[in-house]
Design goal:
The protein is α+β, with helices and mostly antiparallel strands. It is built from 13 helices and 39 strands.
Length: 721
């Protein structure tokens, strides 16, 4: 090849005398791809880093060009070489992967249907037909004998595309029009289309480069939507579109000029007000407008301030606001619609040190609060007149519960969803006045051998290096002995205040039924234990996230759930950063690590403000243009800390079109690992050339990568079927 970017290196197999009788693993006889090195000096704060693989980065223009230039071809050659190596290294597991895939999708009900949601005279639901990879989006009138209307036929629409992602769907107030977003690249840049639901006609209106959702004004003729900066993909503008006009005529009603903020548009539950929100890690700001007068001026509720966060909803003549004003764990306040600034805010649910106020749902007679206590979510029901205040009771040691799809204001019926490690996702209707509930649907597991009672879940606490107690949720099949010989998969995320909930997954049965234990480490950087849990796992305290995960793993080893020879770790995106960090810090602790779409080139990415997500994440990771943050980031950035030493078996997954963690981060990382690691363990990468951050778009296709992931671990454990 004229411009070949990789040579081939035959890996030398060095087998010690104590392993001389072990079977040679297939990959050790393969030639692994070796990326070419073009040293690039990156200097800031009088410190120079040498990046030999910086050349792997391509611009969007290069990726989208009809004919690849020399650099693009080099990158494609390398990515394809890695994919080819993976295919050959795992070829002996092909039949196992097929079995796992069929097993996983076999548990999914093929003609499934969602629980209908009633709104404005119609019942809305999605359903799948037998074997269909995409959903049909449907509705029926709320009247006797009403016929089904298929608003969007997913299988028909997606049939000619390798990727087809649906964004938001929004019906006009008069029920006649549907606005919906479509992404066919997997870059999360959606085109919004409009469809006449009475005639089935697709209008000529076509709104490109959007966030994928549209919000209707009450006139049924005006919609508001976001557009993105074409380079950084930051949602930075709100536009107003009148049905039947060209997008070029759309009016920008708001532009977010601070590049550390992104913006969005929505509507209050009451449908009375349109709302524009501006969001940053440590600050928010909202504007509102009467939904009946879409051409009037927007009014700010409370001007943005650093460290002041709030979100809003509307109830009669007040806005109800969830805020951290003088409330680290957030509280609920209210303020008159005509006096919205913070000096008018009055407490409704005061701040509590031991309760994290997660959110609320407003009804005519009831206020419902979602709260988090001792790391678990609760649902609190309060009557506006103060005559009743109670919690819905849940019994599992670890579970997830949340309100959902409560569009009707004038009702005493609350809909919520519930799941635990042993209980499939369940949708309930709860009568708030009678305190009775009805199970509407529980996700069906199509497996005659599945019984909830066959599995055990636990909630334990590991002790971190600094003495902090870290919750760990576990599930395993009954009868497992705690003898240190069990394979165990430890999962976590640990960033952005995102809590990892202990929910059920039918795909996980393929692990549990083969003797694996599955564990979630609820580490700092999430928000399971309140706001401090998040604050102590970001910025200059980010390393707590990594040491918490390591300490959770050591705890599970000490308690004889597993051993280092059988311990596996998994994390994706920011959780992929976690994987990269613990690989550098404690490489001997794991038999295998799976890093999905991993954020591993932290310093270079956070120094480049042209990359999506960078500017409005400075308050999460820090701005490396500040030397203190630069030095701290550099001390843990996985890519910058790869050393010449032994690493465990590693599987990396990514997508060529990823807009959140660009493909070149994992590509550079695996190249550097190949260059420096001193072991003969398997190191492989699966780069899907057709997808982005979220993977495949179809209902079943995504499970092929999961089957690969499971086969990677099973192979290391000697599990062949």
């Amino acid at each position: 090849m004229k411009h070949s970017i990789y040579a081939f290196l035959t890996l030398t197999i060095m087998i010690s005398s104590c392993k001389s009788n072990e079977a040679e693993r297939p990959h050790t006889s393969l030639e692994a791809p070796v990326a070419k090195k073009i040293p690039k000096e990156l200097t800031i704060h009088d410190d120079t880093r040498i990046d030999n693989y910086f050349w792997m980065r391509l611009s969007d223009e290069q990726k989208n060009a009809e004919t690849p230039d020399e650099q693009t071809q080099d990158v494609l050659d390398y990515l394809n070489a890695e994919n080819d190596y993976l295919s050959k290294a795992m070829a002996h597991t092909d039949s196992l992967q097929d079995k796992l895939y069929n097993e996983i999708v076999g548990r999914i009900k093929k003609d499934d249907q969602s629980v209908p949601v009633n709104n404005n005279g119609y019942s809305y639901y999605t359903r799948f037909e037998e074997g269909g990879d995409y959903a049909l989006y449907c509705r029926k009138k709320l009247e006797e004998g009403a016929k089904e209307e298929i608003m969007l036929n997913g299988p028909e629409m997606a049939k000619d595309y390798s990727y087809y992602g649906f964004g938001g769907r929004s019906v006009s107030p008069d029920n006649k029009m549907l606005a919906f977003g479509i992404d066919t690249i997997s870059r999360r840049q959606y085109t919004i289309y409009l469809k006449n639901l009475e005639t089935g006609e697709l209008l000529k209106d076509k709104l490109s480069n959007t966030g994928g959702t549209a919000t209707w004004a009450n006139d049924g003729q005006t919609i508001f939507y976001t557009t993105k900066d074409p380079q950084t993909l930051r949602q930075n503008k709100i536009l107003k579109h009148v049905i039947g006009t060209n997008q070029s005529e759309d009016v920008v009603v708001y532009e977010e000029k601070d590049d550390t903020f992104r913006c969005g548009v929505g509507k209050t539950k009451s449908d009375a007000y349109l709302v524009i929100g501006s969001f940053q890690t440590l600050s928010t700001e909202f504007r509102f407008l009467d939904a009946n007068t879409p051409n009037e001026e927007w009014k700010v509720i409370q001007p943005r301030e650093k460290n002041l966060e709030y979100t809003i909803d509307h109830f009669y003549d007040h806005f109800y606001i969830r805020t951290n004003k003088d409330a680290k764990n957030f509280k609920l306040v209210k303020t008159p619609v005509d006096k919205t600034e913070k000096e008018y805010w009055v407490d409704v649910i005061p701040h509590r040190d031991n309760i994290y106020f997660q959110g609320m749902d407003l009804f005519k007679n009831y206020l419902v609060a979602e709260e988090r206590k001792d790391g678990l979510r609760t649902i609190r029901v309060m009557k506006w007149d103060g005559t009743d205040d109670h919690y819905i009771q849940f019994n599992d040691p670890a579970y997830f519960a949340a309100t959902t799809s409560n569009l009707d204001f004038d009702t005493d019926i609350l809909r919520y969803t519930y799941s635990s490690l042993t209980t499939p996702n369940s949708t309930y209707e709860y009568n708030m006045s009678e305190k009775k509930q009805l199970l509407l649907k529980q996700t069906e597991v199509i497996d005659p051998s599945f019984e909830i009672d066959n599995y055990t879940s636990e909630r334990l606490y590991a002790t971190a290096t600094d003495g902090t107690k870290i919750p760990v949720s576990l599930i395993y099949k009954k009868g497992i002995e705690k003898n240190g010989k069990n394979p165990l998969l430890l999962y976590s995320y640990g960033s952005y205040g995102n809590s990892m909930e202990p929910t059920f997954s039918s795909t996980r049965l393929s692990l549990l039924d083969r003797g694996f234990i599955y564990a979630i480490a609820h580490i700092r950087g999430g928000q399971e234990m309140g706001r401090d849990w998040y604050e102590n796992g970001k910025l200059l305290k980010k390393k707590n996230t990594f040491t918490d995960f390591i300490d959770a793993g050591k705890f599970l080893i000490d308690k004889k759930f597993t051993s280092s020879n059988h311990l596996y770790a998994y994390g994706g995106s920011a959780g992929g950063l976690l994987m990269g960090a613990v690989l550098n810090m404690e490489p001997d602790m794991w038999n295998g690590v799976i890093a999905a779409v991993p954020f591993v080139d932290v310093v270079s990415t956070m120094l480049d403000e042209t990359i999506p997500l960078t500017t409005f994440e400075f308050d999460e990771w820090g701005n490396p243009k500040n030397k203190e943050y630069y030095d701290y980031m550099k001390s843990y950035s996985p890519y910058d800390n790869v050393k010449a030493k032994d690493y465990p078996n590693i599987l990396i997954t990514t997508g060529y079109w990823d807009s959140q963690v660009q493909y070149w981060e994992p590509a550079k990382w695996i190249a550097k690992l190949r260059e420096l690691k001193t072991d003969d363990n398997l190191l492989a990468m699966d780069c899907n050339m057709k997808t982005g951050h979220g993977g495949a778009s179809g209902r079943f296709e995504r499970y092929k990568r999961l089957a690969l992931t499971y086969a990677f671990m099973f192979d290391l454990e000697g599990i062949t079927k």
